[in-house]
């Protein structure tokens, strides 16, 4: 079974590579809107399924597609990708000193089977000074990251006191759960190594 990743995210691509999985990319632009009455915790699953469905017809019988979507939630509000420096700083100011949730929805799709699941990780930021937030945003430009930060970057080292759940989920892919779900499709990672 050939693995296809429907994601531009360099973090997701790196995590699959770190697993030793050979994969190719299949990218398409998808409208990331969702129904207004959809429960906020279900948005990542809905969007990952929407991304998979957009290229369903391009999948061949010997291919498995992986699509994913990650959101940051705080007080029933979704923090998506910031559009600019000001918005990124505002997000981090709100998250500072608080616990928020990161949910990644993942859809696995073949010609005859589809599975969608999500993983939740709680992230606790210590209180961040304006100078720390300004330095991070102006140095790392986290505009392609939900919530305006990446846990594996400098801000994670200096600002995150603890997490509850999968670390890699915060990066954008709950890899341990993903491996388990891939096994349910009959995919053995030891036979799919990138050597």
General description of the model:
By secondary structure, the protein is of the alpha/beta class. It has seven helices and seven strands. The chain has helices spanning 10-18, 43-54, 85-95, 130-140, 154-159, 167-171, 175-184, and strands at 2-6, 23-25, 63-74, 77-79, 99-109, 114-125, 160-164. Strands 1, 2, 3, 4, 5, 6 and 7 form a seven-stranded mixed sheet that branches. A hairpin with a 4-residue loop joins strand 5 (99-109) and strand 6 (114-125). The model has no long low-confidence stretch (mean pLDDT 94).
Q: Could you outline the blueprint of secondary structure elements for this entry?
A:
Elements: E1 2-6, H1 10-18, E2 23-25, H2 43-54, E3 63-74, E4 77-79, H3 85-95, E5 99-109, E6 114-125, H4 130-140, H5 154-159, E7 160-164, H6 167-171, H7 175-184
Counted by DSSP, the helix tally is 7
Mean pLDDT across residues: 94
DSSP strand tally: 7
Structure classification: alpha/beta
Strand content: 25-35%
Low-confidence stretches: none
Could you give the distance between the termini?
16 Å
The biggest beta sheet reads: 7 strands, mixed
Features:
alpha/beta, single chain, 7 helices, seven-stranded mixed sheet, globular, 195 residues
Kindly summarize this structure in a few lines.
With 195 residues, this protein is of the alpha/beta class. It contains 7 helices and 7 strands, in the order βαβαββαββααβαα.
């Amino acid at each position: 079974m050939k693995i296809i990743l429907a994601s531009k995210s360099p973090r997701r691509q790196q995590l699959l590579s770190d697993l030793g999985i050979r994969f190719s990319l299949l990218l398409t632009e998808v409208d990331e809107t969702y129904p207004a009455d959809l429960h906020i915790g279900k948005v990542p699953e809905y969007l990952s399924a929407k991304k998979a469905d957009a290229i369903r017809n391009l999948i061949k019988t010997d291919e498995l597609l992986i699509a994913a979507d990650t959101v940051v939630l705080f007080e029933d509000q979704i923090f998506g990708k910031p559009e600019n420096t000001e918005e990124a700083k505002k997000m981090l100011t709100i998250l500072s000193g608080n616990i928020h949730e990161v949910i990644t929805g993942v859809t696995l799709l073949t010609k005859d089977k589809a599975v969608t699941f999500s993983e939740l990780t709680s992230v606790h930021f210590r209180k961040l000074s304006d100078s720390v937030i300004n330095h991070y945003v102006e140095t790392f430009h986290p505009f392609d990251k939900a919530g305006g930060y990446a846990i594996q970057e400098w801000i994670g080292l200096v600002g995150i006191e603890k997490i509850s759940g999968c670390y890699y989920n915060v990066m954008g892919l709950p890899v341990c759960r993903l491996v388990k779900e891939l096994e349910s499709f009959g995919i053995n990672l030891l036979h799919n190594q990138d050597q």
